[in-house]
């Protein structure tokens, strides 16, 4: 049989070791601390400062804006620094894990002060207290950004295959859902079981210590989870030698790529949908539906249980149907919930229909969010050295948009009792964000060469003790925007 030298050149193969289940699990819990804090931040910050501490709604929104802006500027900085190859002794621990550890310390030391009364300044003016809380918020958000970006950037570093990247993203989101469910269960338990007042009473100043208890329980679980991550996840050191070479795409090339802006738009609008729902649904329940304090934990809990169920099949939806169809499915669910909220009123809606509505809202958000993270990983492709920058840029747009949106929402709030204000916010802002996200993901063109590379992907059965894949260098990372 005559050999073909050109065939040998074109089908040069690489052995890629699959991640073990322990590694996947350990990676997934690495963001639990952030998820727990984010759940408290988005779901209860405005509730705590407005209804418990008695802050003016605009000042409450301003505090969240300060945090979002700090996060927005920290993310690209952390992204650029995390992408650098540095011989500094601490970075030998792993440049991603070093930033993750630094951020974890900042979060743990600052977050408890945000959900507690101002120490020795409880009688000071609200503007003075705003300065006090802003200092801790900025430290917290810088730490949160460090953990988020380094954790996301590890996905393309840990595995070059699109299937495993999607799986890691889904696992990561599953633990995000678990974390949120955990927070809402703890909030419900503490508000319900330790309440000295009627079960129908609403949130008030008497609940300040209860929020602090929730934070401390959450931080304990988060610290343990971060420890598991740092012990069992091994970051692969970057080297220009070896069978797998690093593909470094310059920052300027991303800014010249139209796809970069479309992906950023999809990510931003999807995050806007998820975060505005998470922030404003408790306010909607409190002011529009006049539901008791425990409902502010029960309804978000139902949303995230729905998200959990969807997170178990999101990977399959993306793999079988493609990114665009998966996002469309999430859009239909989320948009249906927004329409239902807009037209829903009366005792029957408050007592019964709000629950299936929250199921749709949670399911739609989870599908769209994981899909948007998937197309972000696709954009990075084999340029893993630019991964943190890309995630940082995506997060910058997300944080700025959310911060400005919340400040405007609080600023435009009626001074008097506006029963339907937050109903309109949830339905119109979230619904509009979903529409924009769908339009932009449909505008992302398929890359035929990438699809061809993906089709060339070949797998082989190996000993289960060392499960691996064999693929061409160009197809080791499939970039597919379908």
Alpha-beta content class: mainly alpha
CATH level-four homologous superfamily name: MFS general substrate transporter like domains
Distance between the termini: 40 Å
Total DSSP E strands: 2
Main sheet specs: 2 strands, antiparallel
Portion of residues in beta strands equals under 5%
Poorly predicted segments: 7-14, 240-246, 448-482
What is the CATH domain class? Mainly Alpha
CATH architecture: Up-down Bundle
CATH-derived topology: Growth Hormone, Chain: A
What quaternary form is this? single chain
What spatial order of strands do you see in the largest sheet?
1-2
GO molecular function, one term: symporter activity
GO cellular component, one term: plasma membrane
Family: Belongs to the major facilitator superfamily.
Organism: Aphidius gifuensis (Parasitoid wasp)
Describe this structure in words.
This protein is mainly α and 482 residues long. The chain is globular. It has one domain: Up-down Bundle (Growth Hormone, Chain: A), CATH 1.20.1250.20. Helix content is 71%, strand content 2%. Helix 5 (95-114) packs antiparallel against helix 8 (208-232) and helix 10 runs antiparallel to helix 14 (347-380). It has a two-stranded antiparallel ribbon. It starts with a helix and ends in an 11-residue tail after the last strand.
